[in-house]
Amino acid sequence: MKLFRKIRHKLILDNKKTQYFKYALGEIVLVVIGILIALQINNWNQSIKDKKSLDEYLIKIKSHTSEDIEQLGELKKGRKQIADICKKARNSILNKTEKENLFLFMASGYAFTDFYFKPNSGGYESLKSSEYYGKINNTNLDSLLAKYHGLVDVIAENERSYNEFTVHQENYLDTQFDRSLILASAFMSRDSLSTKATPQSEYDQAFIEYTAKPAYRNVISLAAWQFDTMIDQYNQLIQLGHQIINEIDAITED
After folding, report:
1. Is 156 exposed, middle or buried (0-12, 13-18, 19+ CB in 10 A)?
2. Is there a contact between 12 and 4 (Cβ–Cβ < 8 Å)?
3. pLDDT 10s digit of each residue in the chain, 254 long?
4. 190/192 Cα distance (integer angstroms)
5. What is the DSSP string of the chain?
6. d(CA 10, CA 28)
7. Angle between helices 214-252 and 140-176 (to 10 degrees)
8. In angstroms, rounded to a whole number, what is the distance separating the alpha carbons of residues 179 and 165?
9. 82, 220 in Cβ contact below 8 A?
10. Which CA distances in Å does 47 have to 42, 44, 137, 142, 243?
11. Is the dihedral of CA 206, 212, 218, 219 positive or negative?
12. Would you say 112 and 166 are in contact if contact means Cβ atoms under 8 Å apart?
């Protein structure tokens, strides 16, 4: 700055107005260039900070999606096992071989079990409420996340509907049937039951009567076909989850 002042002072003293104006214009240009460079550096630094913050949100979403995929795998396995049992029980009903397959009908009682997919959407909700959500707006990742959480809502509704139906049927059965022998047989060992006055034949007969109730068979029949739909939806969600993870990897590893 001292050098610039000396140059200006010398030009003024020498009465070199034209050269002074050229110098002044050059100095202004230099100042503007300096400001533009400073703004560019500031924008560059801000861009780095914004990307780091966005990446943190995306990495959290990736972690939560991985947890969801693992949970969905377990749900698929459980529903598949129950669906297979219920399909066999349904065939036994159609073939009128229920008494020969008593154990099968006992096992089909797992169709009354509540299964709920509990997604971890914390990362996604945090991103949506942040200033960085706009940075993925109208991108492939935005579309995948919308499809993913839309399907999550569909699955939740299907599970709620099925579980409410089973609870309703089970509550109705409780008003129509004494389940004391069934519960004893289900939770007590054979050795313990053998010490009781009630013979095994009465426990078996209780199961035959209980599993012959329409409310019980309604649940078996529903599980036999609806679980396949639920499993298919789990598979769709798993596929979307892997696509989301791949998309996040592509963004965060840039």
Report:
1. middle
2. no
3. 555 555 555 545 555 555 545 555 666 666 677 777 767 766 666 566 768 888 999 999 999 999 999 999 999 999 999 999 999 999 988 888 877 887 888 888 899 988 899 999 999 999 998 888 888 888 999 999 999 999 999 999 999 999 999 999 999 998 888 888 888 877 777 778 788 888 888 888 888 888 889 999 999 999 998 999 999 999 999 999 999 999 999 988 85
4. 5
5. -HHHHHHHHHHHHTT-HHHHHHHHHHHHHHHHHHHHHHHHHHHHHHHHHHHHHHHHHHHHHHHHHHHHHHHHHHHHHHHHHHHHHHHHHHHHHHTT-TGGGHHHHHHGGGGGS--------HHHHHHHTSTTGGGGTTSHHHHHHHHHHHHHHHHHHHHHHHHHHHHHHHHHHHHH---HHHHHHHHS-HHHHHTSSS-HHHHHHHHHHHHTSHHHHHHHHHHHHHHHHHHHHHHHHHHHHHHHHHHHHHHHT-
6. 18
7. 160
8. 19
9. no
10. 8, 5, 17, 20, 26
11. positive
12. yes
Q: Rounded to an integer, what distance in angstroms lies between the CA atom of residue 36 and that of residue 26?
A: 15
Given CA atoms 175, 177, 179, 182 in this order, what sign does their dihedral have? negative
Specify the amino acid at residue 132. Y
Is the separation of the CB atoms in 220 and 169 below 8 Å?
no
d(CA 27, CA 29): 5
Amino acid (1-letter code) at residue 20: Y
Q: What angle do CA 83, 150, 86 make, to 5 degrees?
A: 5
Q: Is the C-alpha dihedral spanning 72, 77, 78, 83 positive or negative?
A: positive
